[in-house]
């Protein structure tokens, strides 16, 4: 499988990338088939030399089945060669099945605890009201 990807060049803390056609199994800075552009992130975003592409050559490689990486697809979409949409996978940050089960258990335990507290509180109020009701007739009987 062929990839259109970045190969890093430049010195430490001064990156420079060649956009290359390479086998997917080849290392990042290793063997490649063709150079089809460059990317210099050190230049400002509105600089014309920040990204240079050989669009005709890239279009030929895309027809042959080469797949661009996400970063290169961004560059190619600005030239109209591929369709790239900004977006994240909303499921990526979701907890796994076991974590969701634990959260559901925790929520159920918390709800049971709150229900038990409410029941105990109601029972205590009922118990407090009952002796007061029993004492009132006894007081009336002793007065009479």
From TrEMBL:
UniProt biased composition (Basic and acidic residues): 98-124
Record's compositionally biased regions (Low complexity): 125-135
A Pfam family it matches: Ribosomal_S16
Region described as Disordered: spans on this chain: 83-144
GO cellular component, one term: ribosome
Keyword set, alphabetical order: Ribonucleoprotein, Ribosomal protein
Superkingdom of the source species: Bacteria
InterPro entries: Ribosomal_bS16, Ribosomal_bS16_dom_sf
HAMAP family the UniProt entry points to: Ribosomal_bS16
Protein family: Belongs to the bacterial ribosomal protein bS16 family.
Name the UniProt record assigns to this protein: Small ribosomal subunit protein bS16
Source organism of this protein record: Asticcacaulis currens
Gene transcribed to yield this protein: rpsP
């Amino acid at each position: 499988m062929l990839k259109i990807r970045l190969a890093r060049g430049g010195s430490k803390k001064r990156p420079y990338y060649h956009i290359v056609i390479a086998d997917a199994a080849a290392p990042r800075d290793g063997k490649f088939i063709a150079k089809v552009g460059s990317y210099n992130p050190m230049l400002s975003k509105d600089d014309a030399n920040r990204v240079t592409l050989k669009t005709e050559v890239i279009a030929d490689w895309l027809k042959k089945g080469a797949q661009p990486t996400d970063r290169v697809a961004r560059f190619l979409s600005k030239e109209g060669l591929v369709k790239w949409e900004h977006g994240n996978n909303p499921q990526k940050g979701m907890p796994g099945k076991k974590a969701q089960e634990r959260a559901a258990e925790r929520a159920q335990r918390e709800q049971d605890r709150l229900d038990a507290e409410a029941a105990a509180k109601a029972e205590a109020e009922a118990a407090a009201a009952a002796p007061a009701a029993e004492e009132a007739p006894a007081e009336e009987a002793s007065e009479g």
